[in-house]
């Protein structure tokens, strides 16, 4: 045996090769190597995440320091750019229609988009009076005239969406 500083000497004073490690020593060395690689990998991933956060983070984004953009009105027109989609023709109670448009006005919108289903307006059951709602015994335009008047009362413009053509419905009933 030797102390930790001197090599083992053999025959004729030649150094002796150290004994080969045992299986247990090989396992300990491989575990130590794996732990070292795992620690290096974790350190590298943490460093990569820090660099990613600093580079792509919200603090380095030039848009974060800009003031928010306020959209302008439509060029060459006096139109408020914001509006809401309404389905007032499906509402039965008039106070709910009134409340809906009051909330739209309080929201600050300038217009509403309202559906006008043509199949509800032009019934064609009586060719001499095609705009009479036989089911409710009233003028078919009365409900929609009320919606237009209510929108005017709240100073809201209307984008009228006319759909559900009668011809298609009549063809579907005939087949």
Short account of what is shown:
The chain has 175 residues and is an alpha/beta fold. The chain is built from five helices and five strands; from the N terminus they run αβαβαββαβα.
What structural category do the secondary elements indicate?
Answer: alpha/beta
pLDDT < 50 stretches: none
Give the number of DSSP strands.
5
What is the H-and-E element order?
HEHEHEEHEH
Strand content: 5-15%
Q: End-to-end distance, in Å?
A: 108 Å
Task: Please work out how many helical segments DSSP would assign.
Answer: 5
Count of structural domains: 2
Biggest sheet strand line-up? 1-2-5
Mean pLDDT: 81
Task: Explain the overall architecture.
The protein is an alpha/beta fold. The protein folds into 2 domains: 21-67; 83-174, no CATH class. It contains 5 helices and 5 strands; from the N terminus they run αβαβαββαβα. The strands form 2 sheets. A 3-stranded parallel sheet has the order 1-2-5. Strands 3-4 form a two-stranded antiparallel sheet. Helix 2 links the parallel strand 1 (83-86) and strand 2. The chain is rod-shaped, with a radius of gyration of 41 Å.
Give the arrangement of secondary structure elements:
Blueprint: H1 23-56, E1 83-86, H2 94-107, E2 111-117, H3 118-121, E3 132-133, E4 138-139, H4 142-153, E5 157-163, H5 166-174
Parallel strand pairs: 1-2, 2-5
Antiparallel strand pairs: 3-4
Keywords:
5 helices; 2 domains; alpha/beta; 42% helix; 175 residues; single chain; three-stranded parallel sheet
């Amino acid at each position: 045996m030797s102390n930790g500083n001197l090599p083992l000497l053999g025959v004729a004073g030649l150094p002796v090769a150290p004994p080969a490690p045992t299986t247990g020593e090989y396992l300990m060395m491989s575990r130590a190597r794996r732990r070292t690689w795992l620690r290096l990998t974790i350190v590298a991933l943490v460093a990569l995440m820090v660099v990613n956060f600093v580079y792509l983070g919200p603090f380095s984004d030039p848009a974060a320091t800009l003031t928010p953009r306020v959209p302008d009105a439509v060029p060459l027109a006096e139109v408020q750019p914001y509006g809401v989609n309404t389905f007032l023709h499906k509402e039965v109670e008039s106070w709910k229609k009134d409340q809906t448009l009051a909330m739209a006005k309080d929201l600050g919108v300038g217009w509403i988009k309202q559906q006008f289903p043509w199949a509800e307006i032009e019934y064609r059951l009586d060719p001499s009076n095609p705009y009479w709602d036989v089911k409710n015994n009233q003028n078919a335009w009365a409900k929609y005239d009320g919606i237009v008047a209510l929108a005017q009362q709240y100073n809201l413009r209307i984008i009228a969406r006319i759909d559900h053509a009668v011809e298609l419905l009549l063809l579907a009933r005939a087949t």
